[in-house]
Amino acid sequence: MELTETSALRTALAEGVSRWKPRVQEMAHQIHAFKEVSFEEVRSAEAVADLLAEGGFEVERGTGGLPTAFTATAGSGDLTVALCVEYDALPDIGHACGHNLIAGTSVGAALALQPFVDELGITLKAIGTPAEEHGGGKALLLECGAFDGVSLALMVHPVQDGVTYNPAGTSAQAVGRYRATFTGQAAHAAAAPHQGVNAADAAVLSQVAVGLLRQQIPGDHRIAMYVAEAGHVTNIIPERAVVEFECRAFTLKEYEALLERVRRCFEGAALATGTTLAIENTEPLYEPLIQDDALAVHWTEAMVVFGKDTSPSAGISGGSTDMGNISQVIPSLHPWLSIPGADVPIHSHSFAALADSPAAYAVMSEAAIALAWTVAAAATTPTERARLIKAAYRAQTVTQEGTS
Length: 404
Fold this sequence. Notes:
This protein is an alpha/beta fold. The protein is built from 13 helices and twelve strands.
């Protein structure tokens, strides 16, 4: 079936999303119920991969050596499109970031696009990317080559009600996560406290120092921390304390400067208490998010059809994503999906409940249509298609090295 007119193509894609809607919503509901955390999304990844296989995709499981990653492929065109699928939950509070909706949006768009990959001249990949909340699954997949040859990457993220659907100018912060370990000397807390070196005191001092530092940093920087270990009983001076912390900023330069200032807070606490300090990173660095302007225009035009607010955005004031790593090297789109009635913060029990609501699934289907329309528009706009093919990640470098 050849579709040359934009209106006919849009209609066909919308019908495809509608046809698969019951199955996709069932899958999203299952993911919400599984509540599987980073790198443990066994049933969630299986549910997504099985549905894509049913929809005509060739599925490779365990992409990049990650058991809960996969790559589902359809078509063989010279423009390679990646739809990123997330499905990990948060510890304790489940899908309070709505990753079940991210999965449903990307899968709905992929299933609708699959019958038209040849007409559009695309290689369509739905890439299962585990561990977005903690672990940087996309960063790991990028490093191992899972995104090689990809020309554009897209996904949609749910947020609270009232956020504009215009992603132009929005971003997300770089974030690095670390573990600081103080080591002191154990001693009896009553008989010989003077012979101890209290690692828990170092943890307290580091928290106080960081708390005071917050007054002196830019308003869009973030520092968060918690004490993971600081003793076990009252009659032993704690010889070991562990503090988990993270730093966020909208540019890598600002992030690195912030990290250095925070590091000095920990070093000062160690010096003051006589403990030794070791700081190690616990996850890959999440880089700032870059929205592709041309893709943003296509998305915004699609959301106008659904009567959504597409006014210019004031920007996202907080949050990070490993989609930022992808966007640094591949033209990317990561718009925000506003759940009607969601006047509660993300990463809360209330938002987790709303992510499994009829209202959320309704906008998920609309977003799937808009995502499919965005891909089709990019593929059928000659100048944009040429730009994106030229931008294919690593493809040119590999070709040049092979012919030099």
